[in-house]
């Protein structure tokens, strides 16, 4: 473990053999790391380990030098849920039954048993197991059925033990921060004032060249290319300002700048639609509802989303969005003309102010020389006559093409609502 | 690092400070871990580290006991891309310019520069940096612009160094396995014959109780609750059969079993629609296109997906799917009756054989006592008169409710195509 430069270090240990088989992706590591970073910690590592006690013990030993360690998972009722036991051993204390906690969990389980009809010895065993707490630890009230733990390790870190289901982990977070050993630690952490710049359509090599000519002393700069967006994060050491560096980066690539404060494209699109008082409707083929779903993912989106049509077949394009069959015949279902007709059709059928049309070859089959896999046509049209169109060839697999298409459509829509 | 029990151990080290700020989630760790498991390795850890050389070096040291280590990321053109340098130092060899590789990358970059208009010194610098190779390493041809590496560490693991973009990493995987040091290692790995069972609507505590009464000697059992599905993975040591345990688990909870061989719900729905020669259309409100998008995510889905309507507003429900305005008025937009009308409307408008309707209160606002946040109505109807309906109250945040709704709809659709 390297020494800290100005900020105390924290680490995250995520348990779950299912995360090592590829069955599911870990959502807790990134979430906890982000929140630790916002609190001012430098996150050194996120470790994912299986449900094997020795591997979890090794992982805790590896991060012993951190000031704070957060674990997720392994608090459930099954035999492979061993985190409380391993953390107790790491802290050199025994596990003890916490009787008030057992009674508390029993109440939760009883309500659940009445609702689902599952009951009996399996439940009692689960109850007892989940109420075992390392001696001297602070127990955090369950959000689901598993309590969390805060354990101070002598000559080691404060360990916060949280459950694996993201909803339970996130729900327990405020209580974890309020627990005395964590609150004491936080009081000594200098506030982070990190800053993010977001670009669209700018290659990473250009940012690298720009950065070589700038003074980055005391600022950790990380760049992250995420499909078509490039995010540049500036994390200063305590007392260092990021303003001069951010201003220089903004000026160097202004044409590609999406936001200078890290605001997401989705938030900008939502704000733009609200500002204009517009509603949007979509006509999607290859993206199959991903754009509509992304727009609707934000709370309150009913104020500016009317809906959309997933017109995957040609017949559906004609029947539901009024795309003329002879236009499809003449230009092909994947063509700038049909993208425009999808946008217009969606706008008109839903009575929206702005329409977005997407049609493309997502692959892996269906490509031709003229219209290869990855060729996608986009069009955004507005009731007041604006037409924005693009027809790039996008790289990658079927899901890459569909995701990049959704990105591209969002950026075209952003231009329309900003214009 | 604990000793291996029958299977050689492998570890994954993922680099990228952006993965520690929560900006994006790591997709490579789970993918590589899954493929290593299928090859017969026991994956001990996935470590995510920032772009700090000392932290990466510590991580490599931590997994020195593994037979194989796969790294991802840190091969790009920016100054924070340091993996090749750190791995060379871990192996105790210098970095050297690989001139044929430099020329090869120059060709790729030139084509890209012509297409995008970005060119000049930034590009030359990137080219040279990406062609530096540890002495004695096997270089793997770039899929994007960064070559991969296979480095044999004296008294240590074989380290496979892959680029961070998932498309490049996955594209380079076959070449990495074929490289001599990896191929030699693989020749000595006993084949894994793991098995997965998938359940729907079964609590984890029930599986835990069942497992306590069964003989699991020589089989690592992991359970993973993923929203409403429970996956049980059985990973045997070499020479151990999972058949008896799997049969017992199948018999114990047959009513909740989705598949006995790990086949996903999505694959079963696709196969069921194909077998019946049916097409499907969707009428979605709160899920906003997530169900259509999920159905279309599979290659070849045009054979059985007609499309769908995202009818977010009441006006759209009536105009696009023929839901009677007075029905919405009388029963409410979120009601079993409107779910049925959405299913019927989608089926009729698209000329499909089966229709799926979803309408619910995703939250965080809009809930009432009678119809709280999380109350969602589902209906599946078929041209030959089958009607399946449900109206559960689903827990969690807005995205949880939307994702669980999509799951529930998939399972209802699966029942219809199996029925």
List its traits.
homodimer, 419 residues, alpha/beta, Molybdenum Cofactor Biosythetic Enzyme, Chain A, Maf protein, 3 domains
Brief summary of the model shown:
2 copies of one chain form a homodimer. By secondary structure, chain A is an alpha/beta fold. The first copy, chain A, has 3 domains: 9-187, Molybdenum Cofactor Biosythetic Enzyme, Chain A; 195-259, ACT domain (Alpha-Beta Plaits), CATH 3.30.70.260; 265-418, Maf protein (Alpha-Beta Complex), CATH 3.90.950.20.
Topology:
The structure is a homodimer of 419-residue chains.
Chain A: E1 9-15, H1 28-39, E2 42-49, H2 53-62, E3 68-72, H3 83-91, E4 95-97, H4 99-116, H5 121-130, E5 132-134, E6 138-140, E7 148-152, E8 158-162, H6 166-178, H7 180-187, E9 195-200, H8 204-212, E10 219-226, E11 229-236, H9 243-252, E12 257-259, H10 265-276, E13 280-284, H11 290-296, E14 305-311, H12 314-321, H13 325-331, H14 336-350, E15 354-360, E16 376-382, E17 387-390, H15 398-418
Parallel strand pairs in A: 1-2, 1-3, 3-8, 13-14, 13-15
Antiparallel strand pairs in A: 4-5, 6-7, 7-8, 9-11, 9-12, 10-11, 15-16, 16-17
Helix pairs in contact in A: 2-3, 4-5, 10-15
Task: Give a written overview of the molecule.
The structure is a homodimer of 419-residue chains. Chain A has 419 residues and is α/β, with parallel strands linked by helices. Chain A has 3 domains: 9-187, MoaB/Mog-like domain (Molybdenum Cofactor Biosythetic Enzyme, Chain A, 3-Layer(aba) Sandwich), CATH 3.40.980.10; 195-259, ACT domain (Alpha-Beta Plaits, 2-Layer Sandwich); 265-418, Maf protein, CATH 3.90.950.20. Chain A is 40% helix and 22% strand. Chain A is built from 15 helices and 17 strands. Chain A has helices at 28-39, 53-62, 83-91, 99-116, 121-130, 166-178, 180-187, 204-212, 243-252, 265-276, 290-296, 314-321, 325-331, 336-350, 398-418; strands spanning 9-15, 42-49, 68-72, 95-97, 132-134, 138-140, 148-152, 158-162, 195-200, 219-226, 229-236, 257-259, 280-284, 305-311, 354-360, 376-382, 387-390. In chain A, strand 10 and strand 11 (229-236) form a beta hairpin. In chain A, helix 2 (53-62) crosses helix 3 (83-91) and helix 10 (265-276) runs parallel beside helix 15 (398-418). Chains A and B meet through helix 1, strand 2, helix 2, helix 5 and helix 8 of A and helix 1, strand 2, helix 2, helix 5 and helix 8 of B.
């Amino acid at each position: 473990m390297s020494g800290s430069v100005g900020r105390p270090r924290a680490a995250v240990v995520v348990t779950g053999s299912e995360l090592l088989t590829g069955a599911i992706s870990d959502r807790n590591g990134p979430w906890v790391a982000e929140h630790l970073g916002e609190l001012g910690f430098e996150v050194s590592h996120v470790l994912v380990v299986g449900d094997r006690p020795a591997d979890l013990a090794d992982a805790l030993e590896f991060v012993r030098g951190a000031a704070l360690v957060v674990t997720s998972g392994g608090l459930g009722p099954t035999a492979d849920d061993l985190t409380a036991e391993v953390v107790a051993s790491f802290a050199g204390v025994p596990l003890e039954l916490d009787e008030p906690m057992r009674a508390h969990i029993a109440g939760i389980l009883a309500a659940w048993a009445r609702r689902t009809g599952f009951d009996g010895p399996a439940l009692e065993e689960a109850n007892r197991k989940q109420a075992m707490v390392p001696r001297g630890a602070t127990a955090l009230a369950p959000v689901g059925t598993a309590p969390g733990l805060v354990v101070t390790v002598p000559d080691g870190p404060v360990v916060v033990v949280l459950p694996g289901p993201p909803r339970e982990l996130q729900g327990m977070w405020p209580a974890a921060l309020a627990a005395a050993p964590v609150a004491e630690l936080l009081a000594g952490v200098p506030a982070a004032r990190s800053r993010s710049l977001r670009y669209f359509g700018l290659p990473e090599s250009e940012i690298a060249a720009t950065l070589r000519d700038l003074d980055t002393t005391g600022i950790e700069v990380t760049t992250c290319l995420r499909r078509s967006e490039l995010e540049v994060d500036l994390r200063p050491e305590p007392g260092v300002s990021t303003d001069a560096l951010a201003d220089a980066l903004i000026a160097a690539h202004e044409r590609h700048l999406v936001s200078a404060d890290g605001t997401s494209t989705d938030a900008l699109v939502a704000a733009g639609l609200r500002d204009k008082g517009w509603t949007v409707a979509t006509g999607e083929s290859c993206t199959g509802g991903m754009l509509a779903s992304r727009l609707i993912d934000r709370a309150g989106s009913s104020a500016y989303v009317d809906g959309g049509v997933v017109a995957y077949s040609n017949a559906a394009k004609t029947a539901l969005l009024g795309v003329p069959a002879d236009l499809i015949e003449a230009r092909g279902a994947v063509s700038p003309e049909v993208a425009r007709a999808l946008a217009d059709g969606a706008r008109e059928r839903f009575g929206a102010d702005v329409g977005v049309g997407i049609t493309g070859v997502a692959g892996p089959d269906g490509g031709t020389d003229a219209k290869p896999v990855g060729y996608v046509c986009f069009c955004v049209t507005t009731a007041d006559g604006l037409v924005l169109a693009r027809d790039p060839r996008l790289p990658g697999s079927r899901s890459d093409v569909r995701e990049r298409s959704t990105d591209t459509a969002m950026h075209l829509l952003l231009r329309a609502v900003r214009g």
